[in-house]
Amino acid sequence: MAASMLKESGLPSPLLHRTPTSAPQSALNPVHLAFSCQTSPHHLDCCKLYCRSGAIRQLEAKKRSRCKCSKTSLLTNATTVELPCLPFNPSEVFTPSASKTLHLYEARFLALLDEVLGKYNNLFAHIIVERVVGHSLGLGQEINSFAATYGCLAQVESVRQLEVGALVTIRGIGRVSIVEITQVEPFLKGKASPFQDDIPEDIKGISSMTKKLKQILADVQQLQIKLKTSSSDSLQTPLEKALQWAEKGDQDSSLKLFVPRREERISFAALQPVAGASARELHKLLQERLLAMESTDTLQRLKNVSLFAEESRASIAAKVAIQSLQL
Most buried of 177, 244, 311, 323 (most Cβ within 10 A)? Predict the structure, then answer.
């Protein structure tokens, strides 16, 4: 699957093999499709794919025909839109505001890239595919079932051709729920709906926590600059780039329904790999990302990521202190 073809700075793959939990039937929308052995994540001859919203709720798919809007107005006023889908394993969860570089080289994923660039305004759905409980067909046969979870609308920012395939840099725009699979071959397509936080009630509390989080992240950023890392590391950290995007959001009016509010964007921007992170710290980052993707409470997420950022600040400060003693 596509997870075998990506590189993300600071997040080695696989970082964590997470055993998926089965969701109740009411939270799943079965799509009766038989995968070919090439498309199935585990090269199975027959399986069933389920669509699940952010692992916590199902948004009902609207009955509408395939979108025939122009390229520039693909998402305008659309609450459900068909998009190419690139599947990954749970260790590769992708969040709004984050960026990473994919190395695509298989023919089917290069075909997906061509269509994304040519017909979908550089947009596709980054999804996590998880195994769920199998269903018996009788006579000793079983359908191997998978759930499409943790969807994130991704936008291609740059493409660099290689001798084999292409390096593709993408940016996370906002969470999406995959409510229906519309195509399996040569690559997945599905209908996606925006999946965002509930409308907040405690505006003052959110504003206060956002201000506190930004101060912690400013400290983390300054400490990262002081910490000596590889000479090949970019001077601009993933955290700084994510925060810059989170502050302004995406200016494309066609994406307005899919871009979360500023405070929600900043809460996700905090979840970036930091300089010198250990395997344990990266494991913790992944767990925080999974938790953040499931939540619809902006204030609670801000509180959670603030605690995580404080831990990161303390860890980097200790590393900087040790480094100064070694000079």
Answer: 177
| pLDDT at residue number 2 | 40
User: Which residue, among 285, 287, 92, 264, has the nearest Cα to 170 in the 3D structure?
Assistant: 92
Above pLDDT 90, what percent of the chain?
Answer: 57
Contact 84, 115 (CB under 8 A): yes
Place of tokens 């990266």: 282
Which structure tokens are listed for 268?
């996700």
Structural tokens at position 155:
């936008």
> What is d(CA 262, CA 248) in angstroms, rounded to the nearest whole number?
8
Is cis: bond before 12, omega within 30 of 0?
no
Residue type, 57: R
Buried b / exposed e over 47-77, threshold 16 CB at 10 Å, is bbbbbbbbbeebbebeeeeeeeeeeeebbee
Residue type, 315: S
Average pLDDT over residues 106-134: 90
Task: Judge contact between 12 and 110, C-beta under 8 A.
Answer: no
- Residue 36 has φ and ψ, to the nearest 5°, of -75, 165
Place of tokens 């959001």: 249
